[in-house]
Amino acid sequence: MFQSLTDKLAEAFKKFRSKGKLTEADVKAGMREIKLALLEADVNFKVVRDFIKTVTERAVGAQVLESLMPAQQIVKIVNEELTALMGTSNAKLTIASKPPTVVMMCGLQGSGKTTHTGKLALMYKKQGKHPLMVACDVYRPAAITQLKTLGEQIDIPVFAMGDKISPVEIAKAAIEHAKKNGNDMVFLDTAGRLQIDEILMEELRKIKSAVQPTEILLVVNSMIGQESVNVAETFNNMLDITGVILTMLDGDTRGGAALSIRCVTGKPIKFVGTGEKMDAIEPFHPDRMASRILGMGDVLSLIEKAEQAYDQKKAEEMEKKIRESSFTLDDYLDQFKQMRKMGSMDQLMGMLPGIKPSQLKDAKIDEKQIDRMEAIILSMTRKERTKPDIINGSRKKRIAAGSGTSVEEVNKLLNQFGQVNKLMKQMASGNTGMLGKLFGKKGRMPF
Q1: Rounded distance, CA 252 to CA 296, Å?
Q2: How is residue 182 annotated by DSSP?
Q3: pLDDT the model gives residue 438
Q4: CATH number of the domain that 255 lies in?
Q5: CA neighbor of 114 nearest in space, from 229, 233, 219
Q6: pTM for this structure?
Q7: Assuming Cys at both sites, which of 73, 151, 213, 252 could form a disulfide with 222, CB separation 3.0 to 4.6 Å?
Q8: Separation between Cα atoms, residue 77 and residue 30, nearest integer Å
Q9: In which element (H, E) is residue 77 found?
Q10: Among 240, 228, 223, which Cα is nearest to 44's?
Q11: Is 354 inside a domain boundary?
């Protein structure tokens, strides 16, 4: 995410840091590099122009140039202005005071509209809501089937009336159905087109007029850069959208859409799609995104992912095991499974401060390693998993053969486990207060 932009901004900041004192000429030279980096990231030209003007005016002030650490002050200013550019704070989905909350999903074909209808419905289902997805796309072949398949996959009901009924009538009937069946959120998956046309817009306007949706969310693919901003501007002018969902942000190395849409349309980015899995969707936090772009990480999102993925009861059991020094290979494997629920390893690493996207590119994390680890542990007997000290040469050969791995890999796993187990024992005997801090009330694990 934002790999190219992050690297170019880092180079610009490095030149600021190489000088003890900065002059106005130094600042303007650095700003030219930042301007070029933003333009190459496909950020809207007007947005770049205004951004550079604001940052330069703040950066050439006496408070910055005469400070002991002017370079850090400039980074701070850029961080604050990037955050302001993207909306300052997280714009939450509006929930209707009287159910159901109606969310109208719109966008062009291929933007991920249907998939993100499912992702959003699943997100709110996990928050205790009772969503209903509605198949209003009666034009695209298999659109209704796709939504029904998604509904079965995530166990969320789908309302459909076939492809012979008007989408307006389907939307109206779906809301009545939701009221009768206790569905407090309705997600309307409307039809898209390969390009914006008057027929598409007229139909969306009719649906909007008929059902008065609580939210109109535009789904746009961030990978198409500046064109996604143009699409957002057109939809907003014609429909007065309430927010945007940016899809495929995990593959966007430039970031132009994320940095331009809010400024051009005046409407917030509310969610971002970060992968193919149905839980790969996140609320959009401008401050956290600015932090990621500047290579400062996103620890808050990482913690939230951990809290959502980790079972509190298991955390309490794990704390007890550590206190009693009874941490086993089964427990060790379980920790990695819990981490996996949080997302791909390279995504998680990208949220840590100080790790650049370019570093992750060359050090691709092998997701299959956990599969091999699981195979090795499951090839052991229950006694071996509890007391790995008994695993001798012949047992290692048997375990390697049973797991389809090598003795070397078995040794590596046992050595890693030994180091973790040693750390656990030190924590349990040396500082009992440390355990409480690591686990905490939320049930977070120290991994």
Answers
A1: 18
A2: T
A3: 43
A4: 3.40.50.300
A5: 219
A6: 0.69
A7: 252
A8: 13
A9: helix 70-86
A10: 228
A11: yes
